[in-house]
Amino acid sequence: MNQQLLNLINGDSSRYPHQLAEQHPRVLELIIASSQSDAFGAYLQSLLLDDRGNRQGFSSVVISEISTLIQANDERLLGYSLNETDVWGHVKEARHHLEESGTAFNKEGFFAAAERGETMKLVLFLKAGMKINATDHHGKTPLIWASSFGQLPCVGLLLANQAATESQDSGGYTALHWAAANGHAEVIQLLLEHGANANAVSKTGRTPLIQAAARGQRDAVMVLMEAGAYINHQDEEGETALHKALQQGHVHVSEALINHHADVELNNKAQINAYAMGLKHSNIAIRRLLSEKKFISQK
Questions:
Q1: CB 3.0–4.6 Å: which of 65, 115, 210, 217 could bond 17 by disulfide?
Q2: What share of the chain is helix, strand, coil (3-state, %, to 5)?
Q3: How far apart are CA 70 and CA 270, in angstroms?
Q4: Alpha-carbon span 24 to 197, nearest angstrom
Q5: Do 108 and 72 contact (CB within 8 A), yes or no?
Q6: What angle do CA 214, 225, 180 make, to 5 degrees?
Q7: R_g of the chain computed on alpha carbons
Q8: Are 60 and 194 in contact (CB under 8 A)?
Q9: 73, 41 Cβ separation under 8 angstroms
Q10: Summary count for the chain: helices (H), strands (E)
Q11: Does domain 207-299 have CATH number 1.25.40.20?
Q12: How confident is the model over 106-136, as pLDDT tens digits?
């Protein structure tokens, strides 16, 4: 184990990034080289963000380890030590830091930090005693807020601190539903690898796949299908992900669902199936897609 990293994590070997060292030794070297830099925290967060679309993907374990390093670095900058015996002193100090930053110690500030991707403030709120699965007036947790806005470092930090993936808001939607609706594929993958249910059902019977399809989020749809999402699940209106994609004119999502054997003959409560809906669609590309489906099925 590298001594510089051990110092960063206050000698706590349980927080050492063993999988990162094994799977990505070059990345670990770069982390160690930049650990004394003022931009170290920003560099750690950049590892989890794929702005150029060509970053080598990390496993959920490695993302959790990087998230732990982000938290450890934030704690270091704030002057915390795991060796301190005065736990209540940490609480008081964390609340003092929040006040100095102009942030009140309340749920609204906690949720705002998750939404905005402010990892250091999340660390402060947790140090100050805020419950990680606290809910707002809509039943949303910090994990739901971070997932909804695609804040991958915050999602990783919250999951590393045992945030519940299956908490539901007032509509019955989980963090996975919100990440799917907004097309945050990497967040979806991380949530799934931390045990999120790909087939969680909202109060109206909607799954994450239906949410993604309705919004035209093809990458999210693909990740969910690969994770075993039920393609032909019907919501309380009897509509499938394919129904929703067709209604909104999402050609590429509709095509992906059909290619993965979505049932075009399932009727919704209005007794309309996806096949009939597609053939009458105003979008010529969708009409062509369903016409080709008929041709293939008759061969």
A1: 65
A2: 55, 0, 40
A3: 51
A4: 29
A5: no
A6: 40
A7: 22
A8: yes
A9: yes
A10: 18, 0
A11: yes
A12: 889 899 999 999 888 888 888 888 899 999 9
Q: Show the tokens assigned to 175.
A: 């963090």
Share of the chain above pLDDT 90, in %: 51
Encoding tokens for residue 282? 């105003």
Give the Cα-Cα-Cα angle 7, 47, 120 (nearest 5 degrees): 60
Q: How many CB atoms lie within 10 A of CB 285?
A: 12
pTM of the entire predicted model: 0.79
Only one residue has tokens 């016409």, namely 291
Please state, in angstroms and rounded to a whole number, the distance separating the CA atoms of residues 229 and 177: 12
Report the Cα 239 to chain-centroid distance in Å.
25
Q: Which residues contact residue 142 at a Cβ distance below 8 angstroms, ignoring those fewer than 6 apart?
A: 110, 111, 113, 114, 122, 132, 134, 154, 158, 163
